[in-house]
Amino acid sequence: MKDKWKGLLGSSAVGLLNGLLGAGGGMILVPLLEKLGVKGKNSHATSLAVIVPLSAVSAFLYWREGWLRLDQGLPLLLPGLAGGVLGGLLMGKIKLGWLKAAFGVLLLWGGIRNLL
Predict the structure, then answer these.
(1) Distances in Å between the alpha carbon of 24 and those of 2, 52, 100, 110?
(2) CB–CB of 69/59 below 8 Å?
(3) Extents of the domains making up the chain
């Protein structure tokens, strides 16, 4: 029962961050999934399965409010999709320790970048 509440509260925080910041839910969701027993690369992959629909909802709401400019985002879509395919293929070849280190470095970089 305790894990159920952790999951509900944590996923609510993920949705809130995604709605407010447009991203950032993965930094909460991956550790949450690991606490709930989803280990290793499965936690990263499962995080994407949750974040993609949340991002679609947030993008729609941003568009509805006039904050999303498709002409600015569309040129980035194909390269982003290519990077996603490459990352998904490489994930199976990268050791979990390196994946966690890269995740940590990106979190630190993002935090420092946002503070400056």
Answers:
(1) 24, 12, 16, 9
(2) no
(3) 2-68
